[in-house]
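Sequence in, structure out.
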Amino acid sequence: MSESSEYGTDLKDKFNLSVQTEIQKDERPFPCSEREKMFNVLSSFAKHQRNPTGKKPYSCSECEKTFTVKSRLVQHLRIHTGEKPFSCPECGKYFNQKSSLVKHQRIHTGEKPFSCSECGKDFRQKSHLVEHQKTHTGEKPFSCQECGKLFKRKHHLEPHMRSHTREKPFSCSECGKCFKSQYHLKIHLRTHTGEKPYSCLECEKKFTVKACLIKHLRIHTEENSFSCSECGKCFTRKSSFEEHQRIHTGEKRFSCLECGKCFSKKSSLVRHQRSHTGEKPFSCTECGKCFIEKSSLVRHLRSHTGEKPF
């Protein structure tokens, strides 16, 4: 790093510290002479000064959303045009915003510039740090009006609400399958593209979702901390261990609201509920026939491929 860049970083750190000190004092040292408004952060004051009236003169012709500056409108229009002018030199992935590219590149560099002051855990994105900090405070500000369940993140509440309405607004352009959230659609699309962005540093095996990578890593660390006293079977996760124990205890804690039938696993209840709703989420790409369970689709596909595995 050059001396000038180090000096710049030093100044930035000092500035951030001084701003934080002012906030802690509950002082607002930046007054606007035009509209008698006060600001405790210089960046907020500067932003207000650029647009003291709060007007948004730049509007999108597609969705009528408005913006204070033209550059924001230009950036927004890429949502409609699909333009992605920023590409990653490592993997070639494209982005519609430079900030998104910068965040993505941290996957390759391993850089995690945002650190938790409580436990020291590091994060690639500031938003991830903010969400993590709620694990220390226990804050869950978003509640479901239907069942009262609490959530740390708003984007977790929204797909949960659809479990009550059964709405699935996100559809796959390849096969037409619908999903409750944009995230689940994004994961599904990887089954068509073959993209597996999460790779194991030990054996280079790749995965479509991060959770599968984390689960796989336990193979290398030999982390099997939960052992069943009945049969000796070991588990890496407490939830899997507890689910397994229900086989021995016979406990069935998940019940169907329609017919009262009980199940030991939530996944079994979900599959059962399709017999009431008529939902068949697994469709054959060859003939379009739909199925309640994925296993039924797998068996059906053999009628097209001619595969006889047994």
